[in-house]
Amino acid sequence: MKAHLKNKLITVFVILLIAYISSYVAISRISYHYNKIQGVDAFLYFPFPTSAFQSSTISRCNTVGFFVFYPLYIIDHNILGGPTWMEPMWSIEAPKKTNK
After folding, report:
1. I need a labelling partner for 78 at 20 to 30 A (CA). Which of 28, 59, 70, 71 fits?
2. Contacts 24+ apart (CB under 8 A), 24-32
């Protein structure tokens, strides 16, 4: 009975590990491709347009993503030469027009 439980736990662990790695690769590569088109050589974990969320929400989500995926980011970026992570530093407010 213990061997059966151990095999199930190993199977569940392997499936979760594959899902974790796959989600990181998909998020980082899709975001990197999207940002590369716009001239940015980095990626965001949540590459949404700035009009979709408040700036602080995007920043918070990307920071959480950075900590969740940090071990994979280190392996990908430092060892495999993957793209750089970018913290969002924009504001949603439109620039103020000046009348000259």
Report:
1. 59
2. 24/69, 24/72, 24/73, 24/76, 25/76, 27/65, 27/69, 28/69, 28/73, 28/76, 28/82, 28/83, 28/85, 29/83, 32/83
